[in-house]
Amino acid sequence: MAESDLKPEVKALVFDVFGTVVDWRNSIAREVEAVARVKGWAVDPYEFADRWRAKYQPSMEPVRRGEKPYVRLDDLHRTSLLALLEEFGLDPLPADELEHLNRAWHRLDPWPDCVPGLTRLKKRFILATMSNGNVALMVNMAKHAGLPWDTILGAEPARNYKPVPTVYLTGADWLGLRPEEVMMTAAHNGDLRAARDLGFRTAFILRPDEYGPNQTKDLKAEEAWDQVVGGMEELADRLGC
Amino acid sequence: MAESDLKPEVKALVFDVFGTVVDWRNSIAREVEAVARVKGWAVDPYEFADRWRAKYQPSMEPVRRGEKPYVRLDDLHRTSLLALLEEFGLDPLPADELEHLNRAWHRLDPWPDCVPGLTRLKKRFILATMSNGNVALMVNMAKHAGLPWDTILGAEPARNYKPVPTVYLTGADWLGLRPEEVMMTAAHNGDLRAARDLGFRTAFILRPDEYGPNQTKDLKAEEAWDQVVGGMEELADRLGC
């Protein structure tokens, strides 16, 4: 679809965050490495980051299936971290150190194109997160990384996790917009598929390094998304910002 | 309380918006005047603005008392506007014109100190709205007025209206903060009283012109609030920003 067909209708861009906007893998590995140095842990910080992230999708499943009430991602991250320390055979951390490491997810660094690209996009569009991260996580990350969101939407307002429809739909509803006025922006084909099924516009951001050198998924756009770009500055170019 | 006692604990400032951050009376009167000119209405735009605003508190009461489920302020504003047109003996407006006038509340102008003051405060603190306005209203107003919020809290997340405690408490909870880490900022003593009763810090912003030349209430701080200032730049000075 040509940009000129699209532009008059889109009022807001909503963003997946982990992987799409911020580089969780290098950021978490850096924080794990710092803790490992102090504690004398013999762990590969990238393996630790990957295995922590590997618990992410399964940890949300009971909530998505309605078997457990909504709990925040901070709490799921903490449960995963405790299990991971045990799996690595590491001694439990004191509560304050555990909390500091768990909040490494609040201190993720953006991909280099994000702050300049989002700053341009913000002049024309409403920008909101549409992440499974909770509000405090998203707000603290935005302060750390300089991300210029207009507001935080996503999991916590809907008390559920993507790709459950209510997460996307609650976000559009709170903005007072129809789904077709909102562009879901993500580095993950599955996220875009769920949003498109509900009527959202879609933008795919290619992030071939999200999972490091051996990434096997989301290496290309798997459908004809409305926009397919290499980063936020290219998205700003395409949308005439 | 000295600023140095307070500063280490406060992580976020949350703001009442109508009257505290934006000048609803002059903004609404300007929009009413523009419609009146086109429609040939013989109305005093300031009287129209004041009488529209006078319906604000009563319109939220059934929700606060639990007699009606939460509906957004946009909807309450529309109901009030329809009643007002009838009270003034004016013909009903076509749907699109009614909606445009109702959304005048999305286009309120800030007091002159707000954008510079909030921009300074944002460097040190999380800034969020704690308004009875719904999310779309707050986001659109922020785009119109250039207000640099980190996120939107308040009525819609809690599905109730201030001064019901859940509105303040849901906001602090979503930020992952205890009430004493959050400073409620308002031009209204009653709003601050409700927040202080829950443990929030308080800042009173003097807005003696909110209701025009004949304002009778909130002309002074009625309690020893943590900060009492004449505007957001003075608040930034006091908090060392």
UniProtKB/TrEMBL annotation, chains A, B:
InterPro entries: 2-HAD, HAD-like_sf, HAD-SF_hydro_IA, HAD_sf, S-2-haloacid_dehalogenase
Record SUPFAM superfamilies: HAD-like
Lineage start: Bacteria, Pseudomonadati, Pseudomonadota, Alphaproteobacteria, Rhodospirillales
Name of the featured protein: Dehalogenase
Record organism: Thalassobaculum fulvum
Keywords of the record: Hydrolase
Keyword Hydrolase assigned: yes
Record flagged with keyword Hydrolase: yes
GO molecular function: hydrolase activity, acting on acid halide bonds, in C-halide compounds
Pfam families (alphabetical): Hydrolase
Domain of life of the organism encoding this protein: Bacteria
